[in-house]
Design a protein that fits this description.
The protein is of the alpha/beta class and 176 residues long. Helices cover 32% and strands 18% of the residues.
């Protein structure tokens, strides 16, 4: 029999240890995310995958907020975050610091997600856009890579927080 573990048996690090541990070379940028539960899900996923920081841009809501906390489950206290009104200023700043900006989007020329292990070992900023309109074209134009998540069904896209879980994990496992 394979016994299911209780929460206290998972041996997770404490909040204090998490805040001090070396993070994976991943930054997450949310631009104009409307749903507060999506924002919370990004925090929880970023905690799980040990990201360096989340940047909340444009109309994206910021903690503290009850609706964000519903899905973040306290991750707004563990994951470093910052609000920036202008995403292009942030993108240009990150690029000038050697961070490779990657838009998670569908465009004419993309790097498929399963191929990100072939990218150079750098710090990557993963940009996730609005639930309806996606990543802004000016951000796409400024990106080093456009990362596409392959899909095999009839729908054109995934929920943005689902995209986050898939894409962040793919970049995180390259850091293991």
């Amino acid at each position: 029999m394979n016994k299911k573990l209780k929460l206290w048996e998972l041996n997770r690090v404490s909040e204090a240890v998490f805040k001090e541990q070396v993070k994976f070379p991943i930054v997450v940028i949310l631009n104009d995310i409307r749903s507060l539960t999506n924002v919370g899900a990004f925090f929880r996923t970023s905690d799980a995958f040990n990201v360096q920081k989340i940047y909340l841009c444009g109309i994206t809501a910021t903690p503290p907020h009850r609706e964000i906390q519903k899905t973040a489950l306290g991750a707004t206290e563990t994951v470093s975050w910052e609000y920036r009104e202008n995403i292009m200023e942030l993108v240009n700043e990150l690029k000038s610091n050697g961070v490779k900006v990657c838009s998670i989007e569908q465009t004419e020329e993309t790097t498929m997600l399963q191929d990100v292990h072939k990218l150079p070992n750098k710090t990557y900023a993963l940009v996730f856009g609005n639930e309806v309109n996606g990543v802004d074209q000016n951000v796409i134009d400024a990106s080093a890579h456009i990362i596409e998540i392959p899909q095999f069904g009839t729908k054109h896209s995934l929920n943005v927080s689902v995209c986050a879980g898939i894409a962040i994990w793919e970049f995180a496992k390259n850091s293991l």
